[in-house]
Structures are given as structure tokens and as C-alpha cells.
Amino acid sequence: MWEIAPTIQRAMRYDGGVATGMIMDDMGAPVPLRRPPRRVVSLVPSLTEAIAVSAPGLLAGATEWCTHPPDLDVERVRGTKNPNVARIKELAPDLVVANKEENRELDVRRLREAGIPVWVTVVESVEQALSSLRRLFAVALDRPIPQWLESASDTLSRPVPNPHARAVICVWRDPWMVAGSRNFGTDLLRRLAIANVFHDLPGRYPALPLEDIRAAGADLIILPDEPYPFNTSDGPEQFGEKSRLVSGRLLTWYGPSLVDAVAMLREQLEPIPHEGRR
Fold this sequence. Notes:
By secondary structure, the protein is an alpha/beta fold. The chain is built from nine helices and twelve strands.
């Protein structure tokens, strides 16, 4: 259960680099920053890319799952679910960036108890992603809004079309797991007029029998290459011509990839059946 750490008493916002008041992260937890951060450790691949591209030199550490930008040269602090808290402390960052879904409350609490400010993001929709990124740059990092974020906001803020196709989004195998309710990928696909068959299931990533996925009446079975590495020889053989292999980064990351995500996913999903023409 995520909770605001009781050891955090207050946080500051800054005006011209001077602390003047309180700032809070996406969960409403105060973040005790007394000046704009100069050393940041990111525990979220999406945010690692966003910060590295927009504020070169700011990152002091990232996880082993932070694969973008490809030439990122910073200290690696293990994974998103098992970060090396001791090593992060040694790096002495001004701020650690985390995410409610990607990271464990236990690790965030341990970092806060060590006196390290942690900014936790919450992203369950496209709108939340855009808003969260704006707050991260403007409030937590005291940086200008990046141009890629402005471009992505223009593209993704257009009216959402009515769905023309139904899809299942598989995220894992053995056991089979799918995208359920309240997740970014489901909302992003709405921009392509694709509805998630399981959008109303309880749980964000429920496990289902393979037979239930096959019988769901989907036009498409979407198989991203992360977190499970679906590929031409692992996954499509279960669903035949309905299978579509796509980039997990385009479907689930909220960073610079947002600019072209809709257009590139549309190419990877073609042909997309149109409702009434199946």
C-alpha cells in the first residue's frame, strides 16, 4: 500500500532558484527540494529518456531497463523493482524520480527515510501522462517544457475517435496476462480507434486463461516486445492472423516517443479491421 512517508514534514518550491513554498508529487506527497535539482536518479525508463533528451547532464543514475537514449552513459542502479538503494544513497542525488506502477513503495520509503527527495509520478491515461510530464519539468526540475512534449500534447489532445476495432493487449505469457482497466496503453490505442476488449476487467493487468483470450471476440491480438519479449516465434502462433507485433516502447512509454507513437503504431498494426467489415 502506497502511503506518504511520515518522515517528510514539508517541501519547498523555488522562484529563481530560491526555495519559497511547498511542492507535491503526483500522489500528493511533499518533496523537500530547496533548490532545483542538479543530480537526478531515474527509476522509470520513460522518464529517464525524457530527462536525458531534455536536460543533458542532469541524470546521475538510471535502471538497467532504461534503454533510451541508446547512448545514455550513467551509473546503473539495478532494476525498477529491485533498485540498489544503497548505491543510490552513495550517488547522493538531489532527487529520485519514480512511478507508482513501475516502482515499489518500499524502495521509495527507504529512500525518503534516508533523506533523499523522491518525486512519484502517476500515469494511467494519456491525459495524465501529459500533465505529469509537464509538472515534472516545470515544478520538480524547474526546467522549460520540452518542445517534444508540446508537439505530443498537440497531437494527443485531439478528439478521440469512436472505436472501429476491438483488441486484446497481451503483456505476459506463462501465465497469460492482458491490459485491463486504467492503463496508459489502453488509452493510447483509443487514439487509433481501437478499443481494449478487457478495459472493464478489475485489475490493471489481470491473468487470463489462453482460451478466454481467444474467445474474447477481438479483431486484433496485440503483442508488444516488452515487458514480455513477444516476437515472431513466440506469441503469434497462438492467435494466427489476428496477431500484431508492436513496439512496447511506442505502446507503453510516455516520453519523447509520444510524438510519433500514434502514427508508428498505426503502421505496425496494419491492416486494422474496420468494425462492420470483418
